[in-house]
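Our consortium's second objective concerns turning raw sequence data into structural hypotheses that experimental partners can test. To show how far this objective has progressed, the report includes one record in full. It was chosen at random from the queue rather than selected for favorable results. The single chain below, 92 residues long, was entered without modification.
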Amino acid sequence: LASALENKGVGEVWQTLQQFRSLTQTNGYFEQRRKSQRITELRERMDAWLEAGFLDPAYQAVWNQVTSDIQQGRCDMESALERLKGDFKLMP
């Protein structure tokens, strides 16, 4: 049991944490987790960016037009994606 308030066991906990970090760096797990965390962060940022775009009224208008065009057979999927990507490039 460790307590910073009672100054007991903190050194042992710190030593255990250092050993764990050393072990995970040696066996590659530490870097593997860092890479995984970076991908997770990228996904989270992309999701937030997309959500912000879908909330933008100007983008909503384009989205509605593109989905209507697809449903009515006025454009194919590739053309629709290109239109949507173009509008997203203009977003902050």
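The partners drew two points from this record. The chain has a mean pLDDT of 88. The chain is about 80% helix and 0% strand. Both points have been shared with the crystallography group to help prioritize constructs.
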